[in-house]
Design brief:
This protein is of the alpha/beta class. The protein is about 40% helix and about 15% strand. The chain has 19 helices and 21 strands. It has an eight-stranded mixed beta sheet with strand order 8-9-5-4-3-2-1-16. The protein has a six-stranded mixed beta sheet with strand order 10-11-12-13-14-15, with helices on one face. α1 (about 20-35) runs parallel beside α2, α8 (about 365-380) packs parallel to α9 (about 400-415) and α8 crosses α13 (about 500-515).
């Protein structure tokens, strides 16, 4: 420490999932770099020795042994370093696994466990980790040596006191860092592996800033980044350092080359503020000496149900489009956030399988358009030739000239490879093979076309050494509006976390960002105005789209509203109906219309679960997700009998 200032770093170097030797080499290289920059204390991400997304590989002794040996190597390396640092690793003890931070300094190691183990949404960590009660110390053996493992300890480092918490610990009502600060810690280190979602980064920055202010401390946060698996989640590599309510430094997320934040924190100023704020010491004394008793509860009146809920006026605003940014001023930031999640996820998948070829079916509709735009942005980021994107237009019995022309012109404008294959001859032969009358426009007629298109895409991907990029969106998955093993299937579903209303919004954003007079902008604007349709039924006599999706399953803005409140909050149909009546005007949707489509939503949501039980990998984008591996696990034969309006 120099004149009361401590130089601190938060860093998130590249990892490889389950490749401990590679991860160790990255940490060592970063430590030497930070040592050269006179950094005194550094924090690395949660599970950085193994990568956070190893899942059941954490039950492998091969992985655990490698992490243990890596810890010893870092301990030995630290003997010649001035820098003190925290790294994340799994630790075995008495038949259980612990999610630990190893605080390493001058040849000495202390282990700190994660206090709060999440078991909700995408984080089912209790499958692997056990918590250690706050304040408990145990002795653990690693590679024949004994180390202390604890929770709630404070360490002396370079003239200041340091406390450590891990990821979820920060998000609980009373974070361990609150008590650590009151016990004297002026710097809190957080080793994290929090995935990125729409709006989550802004919330996290605020949370870190507020915690540093509330605790009168400095807070260094390192979140997992490039190299973590994108099977269902995407990690952006966050490095944030805050001090007493102000973010001093933060890295540029999504950029593997910018993975570190370094700042000089003013320890002296923090200690002065604690002396000046006398209630800080009062609170610390109360916490150290015991918890005050709860005051007797007053009798509260029961909730009155005399007035019908449907007649009650809500004194609050209900957003009719919960997935779409409300503020135009935040439009650029929000859209780029979503696009970066999709691009980073797809880039990771391509990088992991050493693939430079994508096959995408282009229909001239919203979903395939967004998938194509994300593909182009991904190839540009990876410095790959756009010709490696093979856009395939497959006109069929219902294809109109409007969607066909938009598909071809968009691909030409974006500079990707173009293939055109009419599915009519093959599907006609297929009808003969199975004995289906082509004049009967039933589900067989429609699904035969969808499956033929998927067959072509899969085979072209094999032919070109690439993968098929799925284009279906979150709303279609919720409604089951996809042909099983047709457009339902791909090698990676880049739009799986994006609802239809947001797809349209994103395509509009791309249009606004395109050159004013470009063919790409013209195509995008026309695609936005084109009725949503699978185009599996022949056009009308004037060549216009006859089969309109929203006439069949209902308005997507209603279904997205229903989807949000069903998955995000688990509301009943009656409560969702109440919210919808206040979000939409009677001129938009009458009560009867809302009731009808809400019933349709729940009926389809339940009976189409079997399609969601075998989805391809795809990135989570917002707080609502239907991945069968993460947020939504539901039996395919569950009854919807209880989910009815009263």
């Amino acid at each position: 420490m120099f004149s009361g200032f401590l130089r601190v770093a938060a860093t998130a170097p590249t990892v490889r999932v389950a490749d401990v030797d590679f991860n160790l080499s990255q940490i060592k290289a970063k430590l030497l770099e930070l040592e050269d920059s006179s950094v005194e204390v550094a924090v690395f991400p949660e599970m950085c020795l193994t990568a956070y997304t190893c899942a059941d590989l954490f039950h492998s002794s091969t992985l655990l042994d490698a992490a243990s040996h890596a810890l010893i190597e870092l301990r030995d390396m630290s003997k010649d370093l001035n820098i003190h640092f925290a790294v994340g690793l799994p630790v075995r003890h008495e038949g259980a696994l612990y999610n630990c931070a190893a605080f390493i300094r001058n040849g000495h190691v202390d282990l700190v466990t994660k206090t709060y183990i999440p078991n909700y949404n995408e984080f089912y960590e209790r499958r692997w980790w056990r918590p250690l009660p706050l304040g408990q110390d145990v002795e653990v053996e690693i590679c024949g040596e004994i180390f202390t493992m604890s929770s709630g300890r404070i360490f002396n480092s370079h003239g200041t006191k340091i406390g450590i918490e891990i990821c979820e610990d920060l998000w609980v009502p009373v974070p361990p860092s609150s008590r650590l600060a009151m016990k004297g810690a002026t710097l809190i280190l957080n080793l994290s592996a929090s995935d990125d979602l729409i709006g989550k980064y802004a919330y996290l920055r605020s949370l870190i800033s507020q915690q540093s202010a509330r605790c009168l401390c400095a807070y260094a946060y390192a979140g997992a980044g490039w190299g973590e698996s994108s099977t269902d989640l995407t990690f952006d590599g966050k490095a944030i350092i805050a001090e007493n309510g102000t973010v001093l430094q933060a890295n540029q997320r999504w950029n593997p080359a910018d993975n570190t934040a370094i700042a000089d924190i003013d320890v002296e100023a923090l200690e002065r503020d604690r002396l000046h704020m006398t209630t800080f010491a009062d609170c610390a004394q109360a916490e150290c000496e015991g918890i005050t008793s709860e005051s007797p509860k007053e009798n509260t009146p029961t909730d009155s149900r005399n007035k019908s809920a449907s007649d009650r006026k809500l004194l609050r605003y209900i957003d009719p489009h919960p997935f779409v940014p409300e503020s135009q001023t935040a439009r650029h930031e929000r859209c780029e956030e979503i696009i970066n999640i999709q691009v980073a996820a797809l880039a990771k998948r391509l990088d992991a399988i050493h693939c430079s070829s994508l096959t995408v079916g282009i229909s001239g509709g919203l979903d395939s358009t967004l998938a194509l735009l994300i593909s182009v942005r991904t190839f540009d980021r990876l410095h790959l030739d756009r010709k490696g994107i093979i856009g395939v237009t497959m006109p069929g019995f219902g294809t109109t000239s409007r969607t066909y022309n938009n598909a071809v012109e968009l691909m030409e404008g974006l500079g990707v490879s173009i293939r055109e294959i009419s599915i009519a001859p093959a599907v006609t032969q297929h009808f003969k093979d199975i004995g289906h009358d082509p004049e009967i426009h039933d589900v067989t007629y429609e699904n035969s076309q969808a499956r033929q298109r998927t067959l072509l895409l899969m085979d072209i991907a094999n032919q070109t050494g690439g993968i098929v990029l799925g284009t279906g969106d979150l709303s279609e998955l919720a409604l089951g509006w996809a042909t099983y093993n047709g457009d339902h299937m791909s090698m990676y579903g880049v739009n799986a976390g994006v609802p239809k209303t947001l797809v349209k919004y994103l395509v509009g954003y791309f249009a606004d960002e395109a050159a004013p007079d470009s063919i790409v902008r013209r195509c995008l604007l026309d695609i936005i105005d084109t009725p949503i349709s699978p185009e599996l039924i022949p056009a009308d006599s004037e060549g216009n789209i006859k089969q309109k999706t929203e006439d069949l399953v209902g308005p997507y803005e209603l279904h997205d509203f229903f989807l949000y409140y069903t998955l995000r909050f688990g509301f009943t149909p009656d409560r969702i109906f109440l919210l919808a009546r206040h979000a939409f005007t009677p001129e938009q949707y009458s009560d009867d219309v809302i009731r009808h489509w809400l019933s349709t939503f729940f009926r389809r949501f339940f009976n189409q679960q079997f399609k969601r039980s075998c989805l391809p990998d795809g990135p989570k984008v917002g707080s609502v997700c239907l991945s069968p591996r993460g947020d939504w696990r539901m039996p395919s034969d569950a009854s919807s009998a209880l989910w009815k309006l009263h």
